[in-house]
Amino acid sequence: MDAFYASIEQRDDASLRGRPVAVGGRPAERGVVAAASYEARRFGVHSAMSSAMALRLCPQLVLVRPDFDKYRAVSAAVFEIFRSVTPLVEPLSLDEAYLDVTENAWGETLGMAVACRVKAAIREATGLSASAGVAPNKFLAKIASGWKKPDGLTVVAPERVEAFLQQLPVDALWGVGPVTARRLRAAGIERAVQMREVDRAALEAAVGSAAGWLLQLAHGIDDRPVEPHRPPKSSGTENTFARDLVDLERIGEEVGQMAAEAAAWLDGHALYARTVTLKVRYSDFTTITRSHSCLPATRDRGEIARRAEALLGRTEAGRRPVRLLGVSVHNLCDVPGESRPRRAAPMPLFDGIAGD
After folding, report:
1. Does residue 346 have a cis peptide bond before it, meaning omega lies within 30 degrees of 0?
2. Which CATH number fits domain 4-66: 3.40.50.1220, 3.30.70.1350, 3.40.1170.60, 3.40.50.300?
3. How much is the pTM?
4. Nearest to 273 by CA among 325, 335, 347, 327
5. Does the pLDDT at position 166 exceed 90?
6. Quick one: which of 48, 167, 173, 320 could link to 316 by a disulfide (CB 3.0–4.6 Å)?
7. 79 versus 174: which is more confidently predicted?
8. Nearest Cα to 351, choosing from 178, 152, 123, 74?
9. If you average pLDDT over residues 98-123, what whole number do you get?
C-alpha cells in the first residue's frame, strides 16, 4: 500500500489532501513518524524519523495521531481481497504481502493482469492506491513493487531478469543495510551484479556468512515459496520515553514490564524462547543490544525478567541517560527442550502489494 497510514488519514480528512502529512507522536513526547505522505517525503520526511526532525525539515508538516484500529480494519479489507484471489498470501505487515498467483480465482494466465485487477479492487473497496511488483520470485518482485510508487506496477518477465539486475545498486539486495553497503563499496562493489566477479573469500570478508545468500540474489535466484502460515521468529516491545531515564531502579522496572509483556505473548502463542534480547538507546542516540541464550527454552515471566535485568547490568544504564528501552524474545520453539528454533522461512526477499 502507498504511504498506508498517511493515505488513510488524507482519505478520511479532505483538509489533509495535497498537504504534507505524517502519522506519529508529538515532538514533546519524543514521537516518531510511523508514515509520511508523498507530499512530506519531498522534504525528506520518512518513517522512523523523530517527529521533531520531521518538523524541522518541513515546518508546514501536519502531524496526525495514529489510529491503529482504523488501519487494521482497512488492512483486513485489503487482505480479504488478496485471499479471494489466491490462498497463497504471505503477510509481511498490515500493508504488504507476497501473493503467488500462478493459480488464481480469475483464471488469469499473466501476473500483470492479476496485479491490475487487485489494484483496481483495492481502490474500489478502500479508496486507496497500491503498488505491485510482478516477477518470477519474491526477491525480484519485492524490489519491483517499489520501483514506480505511488500507484505503480512493474513487471519483471523472466527474459528481462538480467537487464533488471544490471540496474540494481548493491544496497537493493535484501539484507544489505548501510553498514554492509559501505563494506561492499569499500571492496569495489557498487552494483549487485559485481558480486559475481569478486573472489569468494573477499566477499566473505566483507559480509561474512551472508555471502552465499547475497551471491544467489546477485544472480536473481530466490527459490523460497510464498508461505501463508509463516511462523513468527521473534516478538518484543520497545518504548521511547518522554524524558530520559536516569534512575537505575526505574529503568529496571520498565525492563521488567517489557519482559512480562514478552512472556505473555509467548504464553498466548504456546511458544518458548531460548534468547532474550535487551535494547538500550542512550540520550545521544547511541543504540546497543545485549542478548542471552540458553536451554531449556522458557516462557516463564520471572525467568525472562531476570535474564533481561541481568543484561541491563552489561550496559551503562544508570550512568548514562536512557532514551529508549526494548525487550524481545527470539529463537522460538514449541517444546522447552528443543535445541533448535522452530522452523521458519528464511529472511524474506512474486511480491503482491508493496508497503512503504
Report:
1. no
2. 3.40.1170.60
3. 0.76
4. 335
5. yes
6. 320
7. 79
8. 152
9. 97
Q: What one-character-per-residue DSSP string does 156-180 give? A: --GGGHHHHHHT-BGGGSTT--HHH
Nearest to residue 93, comparing CAs of 4, 8, 225? 4
Q: Name the 3-class secondary structure at 77.
A: helix
Distance CA 41, CA 33 (A): 11
Whether the Cβ atoms of residue 207 and residue 183 lie closer than 8 Å to each other:
yes
Q: Is 96 a catalytic residue?
A: yes
**Domain covering 234-333 assigned CATH 3.20.20.140 in the classification:** no
Q: Is the alpha carbon torsion for 320, 322, 323, 327 positive or negative? A: positive
Q: Which amino acid is at 264?
A: A
Distance CA 16, CA 325 (A): 33
Average pLDDT over residues 82-89: 96
Residue 274 has pLDDT above 70, yes or no: yes
Residue 351 has pLDDT above 80, yes or no: no
Catalytic residue among 9, 39, 90, 96: 96
